Sequence to fold (707 residues):
Amino acid sequence: MTMTSISRARRTYGAAMACVVPLLLVAACSSGTGSSVGEDGEIRMMVNLTDNLDQAYWESLVKPFEDKTGLKVKIEGPTGKSVAESFPQQLAAGTAPDVIQSIFPDDDTAPELLDLGNEAWAKNTPMFDEYALGDKHYAVGVGTQTQSLIYYNKSAFKKAGISKPPTTWDELAGYLPDLKKAGVTPMQTAGDYQTGLQLQQIYHPTLNQLHPKWQTAVSEEKLTVGEAYKPAFEMYSDWIDAGYIAKSDAGLNPSQADGNFIAGKVGLYTNGSWFAATLNKATDLPFEVGVISPPTADGKAYPGPQGATMANPYMIRKGIGDEDGAKQLVEYLVTDAKAIEAQLGSDGVFRKDSGLKQTDIDAQIQSVLDAAPELVAVGEGQGNVRLPVTGFNPKFTEVAQSLYTGASPADAAKAIDQWVEENR
Amino acid sequence: MFIPAVLIYVALLVVPVIYAFYYSFTEYNGFPTRVPEFVGLDNYRTIFGSTDMTDTMVITAVVAVVGAVLVNLAALGLALLLQRTNRFNTFGRVVMFYPHVLSALVVGFLWQAVLGPQGVVNTMLEKVGTDSLPFLSDPDWALWSMILVIVWSLFGVQLILYLAGLQAVPADLLEAARIDGAGRWRTFRAVTWPSLASTVTVAVITSGISLLKTYDVVVSLTGGGPAGSTKTLAYSILAVSFPQRNIGVASAQAVVLILAAAVLAITVLVLRKRAEDDAESIG
Fold:
């Protein structure tokens, strides 16, 4: 072998090693099992951290449990933007927590989670059956986040000569010009995620009266999303054309929309029960707040079905070190009276027939919830009532925003149907 | 020292790209318990067959091309103005570089507060009795607003590159041009611009690649809206495909982005080479 060929062979060997060794290192460093253990047997719980639900809140919530059982609970915030984004990333990295709060199971995550269907304590928790996947129950919750609410400015209604809140679409449409004449924005909407969310929220009761379990109907190809939502697109489009909804709302930050309502500049504002926490914090509101369920379809009973999601859901990861400890923790969080009370008062969380002392706004939301004939799945759906696609809400927002930028209701219906077909 | 450096380079840069290529031919949710399933070119068919995704590619191309031109024009223009060293110019350079120091997310939020429907500009317009402008609520306006905000936040680095490039322009050539009676524009065209060729190449490629990856400003300024009009490919990968655990499609989109960056870099290099060859043949 000549020196040149030896040198070439060495170079080839070096290049091969440079490619292979890092691959081996990467493979060796990845766990492959998705398991991780907290220090000294502590239970790791990933929670949603917000202004209202901060680290101190969560630590004080689990403190009685730690004192009673001697188990340690480590509260962890999401490592990414949200728990929904962080949990799959951590599962992939093998660093996922033991207990996960604030998100729901789906087909991908379900195999990684523990079925709580046989736990006696879990069976009476709110919306337990609504969130079943097949016959398995991976999530248990504390209450309900009520999704379909219209907050309205009672003082502006009075000034506009409106004596009672609307229960039909005709009534609502008739009030909008009066509110405009009274000098307020008749209906406040916002950009970002909120455009699509609000359109869905205001239409949940009607949609579920006209097409019960509509997500399943779409899954079974008996209905399209465009057909289901076209009447709502038409109403929105008319209101945008008439100036009752500002076109510029498509670029408005949701917190500015909240601020407009709080400042008394708005007649009607569609939002979820979590907005009550913001309103309760705002002292000295310049008007009286009313809360109602949205109007229902012609000839149908009022109030209609209420869009709802399980509030403070907890799930346990399968294959963790201390499965029993994690179950005890979740049982405490969803059944202990004081733990429930602390969570109900925290962030717009409600529970049917709760006897908790409430603010006036909370009491109105509680009445809407108690009067609802049915709690129905929202957006992409939940449990066994689901659309055949993922990522529905962001796409729906895009389509809803197109109504503000000149698309016709028919175009919007076609666009959402096309997307569903492409992603089914 | 050579082998460890190569190993680190390969582990941190080559291996992830190999994985991206591999995943782009699979259906995979990223979970360790699931084995990636080989699906051939399905993910590529998905991204090129979906109007939603092809729209994001068009928007990304517009942002990259228009943005790169504007970034480099602004940076070169200002570099020419600020090339002499004096107190004012030193201060000017610091001010011009300042936007680049800010996180792109902060830049987006900041400009949202300025350009939003209830932002500083529209509030002032309303106060003087003029109609507000739809900077972020009209699809065309939003795209242009976003491009200008990105240009504002990016051009600081290109400015430094051009300032460095201008220092390297041979002084004797400039003086010779002046003695020959060449005006400013002629001097720039005949002496400065050719001397800046390698700087321009680097500046255009780096700014183009940065613009192809536009994500943070989209998140904080427009959220991809209104009606998806500012949704870039990087935004679609990070805010849509990955959260949906569509690792195969996200990887295919990432591969397309890598190829686009490669095409951009090669195009600029080829154009420069051709220009140099033309210049030599004339000379």
